[in-house]
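Final report, closing paragraph on structural work. Over the funding period we assembled a curated collection of sequence-structure pairs, and we close with a single example.
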Amino acid sequence: MMFGALGKCPMCSGCLRFSGGKYRCHGYISAWSKCSYSTCEPERLKGKWKVPDETNNEFLSKWFKSQKIKKPARILPPASASSSQAANGQSQTSNVESLANLKVSIVGLPKESLEEWKGKIKEAGGMVHAKIKTDTNCLVVSGDSEGHDAERRKARRMRLPIVREDYLVDCFKKQKKLPFDLYKVEAIGEASSMVTVKVKGRSAVHEASGLQDSCHILEDSGSIYNTTLNLSDLSTGVNSYYILQIIQEDKGSGCYVFRKWGRVGNEKIGGSKLEEMPKSDAISEFKRLFLEKTGNSWEAGEKKQNFQKQPGRFFPLDIVLLIFFPSFIKCVMPLA
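Its predicted structure, as stored:
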């Protein structure tokens, strides 16, 4: 209240909150990617705070009369990002460098946004490289950068900084080329996994349930109650999976809802849960969990019709099955 109401995020129009010494956006730039914008000098709404006429709070009424239209600026302590540079005896870049020294490659942006950045950077004297070159300063990634793995691998080989889009936003806001350290994206390695599973019917019970020898995946009214979900976001480094199954006994009618979750490529993070319940309850619980995780109904996900990817929610993966023997297969699960 002292410094004025915060304006909207300039990248996605989301809300800003103070966290970790900076104002950070908590919105989404698309259904696939969380907004990564952060700043120490946010735009603020001009004018006085408004207090409801019916308020009986004497303090608020007195404060309302005494508040000034022009709010004081909030001064935050400087970030200590230069310590690692000093240890190496060199500075990655100078705080007084001109925007004309920007030579960047950009991936993952919609065509309209990419053209807008090209215009701004070229107007400032900088350059946007369609492909990474020897004199490229950094690789800027944003949104859904699927299909640009080659550029990210090339950047890592050349030891180029891979930064978020808000690096460019802050460079132009401060009218200078900034250091990369505060904007770097965690490098995400590629991974894949091949496991042996036993198939009964048209699917396979996950081995982590411990029921693969005595049970099978429930098939009812044409539905196969088995799905693998993924939530990945390059801008934040999130890459999580969620496995959901209804497992039915081979010799009986007992059913179990099995869940397994974690981070792709890291078995130390995550967990699993197995619950026994009647068939009708298991189907209801399965559909509830699918809706909770994806924001879509099970029917939409199963038929792949009218399924809409929701910001911050999981998305169903297609599992590729390679058959080697009549009763055993190798299951290749895309993990990245």
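Residues 81-96, 187-193, 325-336 have pLDDT under 50 and may be disordered. Residues 139 and 155 are 7 Å apart (CA to CA). We thank the funder for supporting this effort.
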